[in-house]
Amino acid sequence: MVTGDVKLIGSWASVFVMRARIALNLKSISYEFLQETYGTKSELLLKSNPVHKKMPVLIHADKPVCESNIIVQYIDEAWSSYGPSILPSQPYDRAIARFWAAYVDDKWFIALRSILTARGEEEKKAAIAEVEERTDHLEKAFIDCSNGKPFFNGDHIGYLDIALGSFLGWWRVVELDANHILLDETKTPSLFKWAERFCNDPAVKPLMPETTKLAEFARKLFPKPQA
């Protein structure tokens, strides 16, 4: 679907950029993807997001919208009559989805990233234990939110699915780095099955980066300290 002037500033490797891209795909919105170069910030990015100077930035009719979760909500509202609704229809369900999305960013993601930045095996073990504890919380959240359906949002991908699912590529990279399975079929069976469904969804599959390519990028982003 051609919608006019829609652009997205971002990088293929960014979890937060992927959120916006998945939302655009769900709504079948055609857009121009403006790829940022690692280690630099384009003039357009700085002009479009002068406060945080970060991607992603959605530009719709020459108006910039910043911050990944805000962009996802904007896409859902701006193109409400196209594709499935991304946010739940009921106010309480929307509040719960926003609560857990904030938990993913503020708690779970911080723990996941600390595995890559850990100095020494003890610090890494502590980080792994923290991720597993917080993943258990998300397993319970999935059971409560999904009501036995395939996604957090029910029958199709929604706001919380996007918030967590965008991390799945990096989740695999961290597992490789830690030599430890973090998304365990036995410990978190509901999330394990959900992850497979999410990655194979037509709105997601073309965007999910190859693990080897992403692992190479991670080595640049999180270089190991020299002995």
Automatic annotation (TrEMBL):
The keyword Transferase applies. Its main location: cytoplasm. Residues 4-83 form the GST N-terminal domain. Keywords: Cytoplasm, Detoxification, Transferase. Residues 90-221 form the GST C-terminal domain. It is an enzyme of class 2 (transferase). One of its GO terms (molecular function) is glutathione transferase activity. It catalyses: RX + glutathione = an S-substituted glutathione + a halide anion + H(+). Gene3D superfamilies: 1.20.1050.10, Glutaredoxin. PANTHER family: GLUTATHIONE S-TRANSFERASE U18, GLUTATHIONE S-TRANSFERASE, GST, SUPERFAMILY, GST DOMAIN CONTAINING. This is glutathione transferase. The gene is LOC108857139.
